[in-house]
Design a protein that fits this description.
Layout (H helix, E strand, L loop, with lengths): L5 H27 L3 H9 L1 H26 L5 H5 L2
Amino acid sequence: MDILNLTLVGWLFAVGSGLALGLGIWVILGLHSSGEGARKHLAERVLDDSLLFGIWILGMAGASGCCWKSHGAAGCWSCFAGR
């Protein structure tokens, strides 16, 4: 038995990445609806936020790869999402 189960690591990373993406979306939507000053701040930091979203999306892709490697194509959650 492995010390770290690849399936567990993949699912934890996928859940963590999904939570980070959801929190980021929630914060951006909250700032967008809070006023003109916050919208100006969001407009100034659009590149930073886009890069962070890209990093977390790559994290979800990596987690999908862990799930794929440990269970084959039938256990990969992104295969089910693409159907």
